[in-house]
Amino acid sequence: MGANRIKIAKDKADLVKVLTASDDTTGVFQTYVEVMVFAAGLGSKRKKRVPLAGVSKDLEPIRLEYFENHKYDLVINLLAVSEVKEHNILADDEKLEEQRIKIFEEYANAGLEILQQELRGAVDYSEQILLLLSSERFQQEQSEEEFDLSKFLSK
C-alpha cells in the first residue's frame, strides 16, 4: 500500500483520543489504530457507513503501515471486498487503494458515531463497551435460536 492514510472525522477526534490510553487517561484501546478498527467493525456489523464531513486537524491521519504492522490491513481489505462484492478491489492500484480506504473510513466513522451515542453519559467506557459487545452477542444468539416458520408457508 502506498502513502495513503486513514483520516479521522473532525467531530470524532475527541472520542478517539478518550478511547485511547495515554499518560493522562486509561483508555479502552492502546492505539488510534485499534479504535478505528473496532469502530469500523461496529459500523460494518450495523451495516452503516457515514462519509466524513470534515477531517480532524488535531489528529494526524494514520499511516497505513501502522495497520499493516498488526495485520489490520486485512480488515480494510475484507470490508472493501464485502462492500463492493468484487475481488478486483484488492488490486495493486492507487485508485482502488483510495476506494478501500474510503470504505474503511466511512465504516469507522459510522462506528464512532454509534459509540458516541452508546457512551453518552457513561462514566466507565470500558464497562459500557463490554455491555455493548455483550448485547450484540446476545442479539446474535437470540436470532440464531429463533425458529422461523415463514419457510413453511406457501408463497
Structural summary, described in words:
With 155 residues, this protein is mainly alpha-helical. It has one domain. Helices cover 55% and strands 3% of the residues. The chain has 6 helices and 2 strands; from the N terminus they run E-H-H-E-H-H-H-H. The protein has a two-stranded antiparallel ribbon. The longest helix is centred in the last third of the chain and has 26 residues. The chain is globular, with a radius of gyration of 17 Å. The protein starts with a strand and ends in a 10-residue tail after the last helix. The model has no long low-confidence stretch (mean pLDDT 88).
Concise account of the structure shown:
This protein has 155 residues and is mainly alpha-helical. Helix content is 55%, strand content 3%. The protein has a two-stranded antiparallel sheet.
